[in-house]
Design a protein that fits this description.
Strand content: 5-15%
Number of strands: 7
Order of helices and strands: HHHHEHEHEHEHEHHHEHEHH
């Protein structure tokens, strides 16, 4: 669905959401009673009630943050001084506060454990925090990009990210990230994404961190099979063989990663692996999985810019790191991401 013009999103959608949230709060007692009454007849422990409570917290955070963002817009001279360091810092602070409230609610409502201390530890023990950083992460499950943005913010970094333009339907993401160094791109492939990466990486300063997902999409079993078949069709048989060895990740695409390294040649690189969100690819999965009672774990590895290979060796270097991330996931979660029968069929082909 096409995104409405910015003036429509600002004058109609964002204020309309705040009004809708206020109206929603007025019907909350009735909704809580209905959710509690339906919960015993549905699988899971109080699933409708828990989901309704999380939705309430999310909407309350959205309304509060949008109100604060309007105040920052006024303080910024009606958008004339938004690019100053002070206003950028205030918007990053608002983003960090919003994500923190949502994560705290998720921990309690969904009984989730976020064990990302290793990732935050690697990011906090930056040997030179004044220099920019490029973060390459696997992509799997609902919300992993926001979890990593939160981890970067908690570590004192100012995250930059390339997002799908459809996320601008969320008024808070639309307002905040369009005021910060972030780029929304269309769903198609091509030079637009690479140009956006070059734009974000090229002017990074102290404490900035560019977050990229080289796989290009969330991991699913079907996408893994299709990506290997695509590599074979393109005659890239060696890469297809490497992709078959990786059971939990998709084959990384090197074009965007190489563009980021080229545009920020003195930026160190951090590789991130995580597990725990693989079974949550969409809204239906989240509904079926409540309460999830699961642990989200992360790991990170630091690479100095001095140790990054030359451009001709970077595609193989990226595959080597993705194999390492896959092995970490295997050691953490096991080999159940792709059924053996599927893996056997791929090997036979």
């Amino acid at each position: 669905m096409k995104i409405p013009p910015r003036w429509v999103r600002r004058l109609l959608i964002a204020p309309g959401l705040v009004v809708a949230i206020v109206s929603f709060l007025g019907t909350l007692p009735v909704l809580l009673i209905a959710a509690a009454a339906a919960s015993p007849y549905l699988p899971g422990r109080w699933r409708p009630l828990r989901l309704l409570w999380f939705l309430l917290v999310y909407l309350a955070v959205e309304a509060a943050a949008l109100t604060a963002a309007f105040g920052l817009w006024v303080m910024g001279g009606l958008a004339r001084r938004m690019d100053t360091d002070r206003m950028q810092a205030r918007h990053y602070g608002l983003l960090r506060w919003s994500l923190g409230r949502v994560f705290n609610a998720a921990r309690w409502v969904f009984n989730l454990t976020f064990d990302t201390s290793e990732v935050e530890g690697v990011l906090r023990h930056d040997p030179d925090p004044d220099e920019p950083l490029v973060v390459f992460s696997r992509h799997a499950g609902a919300g992993d990009s926001l979890i990593l943005v939160h981890a970067l913010a908690e570590a004192g970094r100012r995250p930059r990210i390339v997002l799908k333009e459809s996320l601008q339907w969320d008024p808070l993401l639309d307002v905040l990230l369009n005021r910060l160094p972030a780029v929304f791109v269309g769903g198609g492939r091509g030079g637009g994404v690479v140009d956006a990466i070059r734009e974000l990486a090229g002017d990074m300063g102290r404490y900035d961190a560019l977050l990229l997902f080289p796989e290009g999409g969330n991991f699913t079993e079907n996408r893994r099979v299709r990506s290997i078949a695509k590599l074979e069709e393109m005659g890239r048989h060696a890469e297809a063989d490497l992709a078959r060895q990786m059971r939990h990740v998709l084959a990384p695409r090197s074009t965007g990663a190489m563009a980021a390294i080229e545009s920020a040649p003195e930026a160190d690189v951090v590789f991130v692996g995580h597990t725990g969100l693989e079974d949550l690819s969409g809204v239906v999965d989240v509904w079926r999985g409540l309460p999830m009672d699961s642990e989200i774990r992360g790991a990170a590895w630091w690479v100095s810019w001095h140790d990054i290979p030359p451009p001709e060796a970077q595609p193989g270097w990226l595959y080597d790191w993705w194999l390492r991330i896959d092995q970490w996931i295997v050691s953490t979660r096991g080999t159940d991401a792709v059924p053996d029968a599927v893996a056997d069929r791929l090997r036979d082909r």
